[in-house]
Write a structure and sequence with these properties.
By secondary structure, this protein is an alpha+beta fold. The chain has a domain of 124 residues: Beta Barrel (Lipocalin). It has 3 helices and 8 strands. An 8-stranded antiparallel barrel has the order 1-2-3-4-5-6-7-8. Strand 4 and strand 5 form a beta hairpin. The protein starts with a helix and ends in a 10-residue tail after the last helix.
Length: 215
């Protein structure tokens, strides 16, 4: 029986090509079926380790801020370098000072420690959707790292009305003139507290690319 090397080689190449196409098709199908996981966000209220304070975080402009939203024992900012602020309550003051996002789920910047009136480097990362890790040596009790847990937000109860109000006609959409700048996004209570504590106009706090202000 005559053996044709040329014929065998051609069949082998065709078989390899067919197998390669099958593997490529399978890989593309698998990649299409896998959707990237959404990175967890630090926006919300967090219970510090030890349970004696809640820190509420939000994005103002493009920076992450955190304010004291609740404390187990009321305190004042007695060690602030600014003597005029030493009698102010620590409740509501910013402690996470305009952190910038370094990568998805990771933020870095500074944190203010009202225990000694100093500001330290801080790194925030999301361990999970409901666990946040703060690294650094801050607040007098934070050295290296500490895990904070998310506080479940309780929606405010709406009292039932005995009679449903008739629906109002929708207001006409505002017409934007050519060249008009887009409206500033609505500021949250965190951003409003930042503006109040730092003396900055809320419009400046909500701008992107702005530098961290003084505590």
């Amino acid at each position: 029986m005559q053996f044709s090397m040329q014929s065998w080689t051609a069949k082998f190449v065709i078989a390899l090509s067919t197998a390669g196409l099958a593997v490529t098709s399978l890989a593309m199908t698998s990649l299409a079926a896998v959707s990237p996981a959404r990175a967890a966000e630090p926006i919300g209220t967090w219970l510090v380790e030890g349970g004696y304070a809640h820190i509420k975080m939000d994005i103002c402009g493009d920076r992450l801020w955190g304010i004291v939203a609740w404390e187990k024992k009321p305190n004042v900012d007695r060690n602030n370098p600014d003597a005029s602020k030493r009698s102010r309550p620590t409740l509501g003051i910013p402690i996470l000072m305009g952190l910038t996002q370094s990568k998805p789920g990771k933020w870095e910047g500074e944190i203010y420690n009202s225990e000694d009136g100093r500001t330290y480097g801080a790194y925030v990362s999301m361990a999970s959707e409901d666990v946040l890790t703060l690294e650094g040596c801050v607040l007098g009790f934070l050295c290296q790292s500490q895990n904070w847990t998310r506080v479940a937000e309780t929606p405010a109860a709406t009292p039932a009305s005995p009679r449903a109000a008739a629906p109002r006609p929708a207001a006409p959409a505002a017409r934007r003139t050519t060249g008009q700048a887009p409206a500033t996004p609505a500021a949250s209570d965190v951003c409003m507290a930042v503006a109040s504590a730092t003396g900055q106009p809320i419009e400046q706090v909500m701008q992107t690319g702005t530098k961290r202000s003084e505590r």
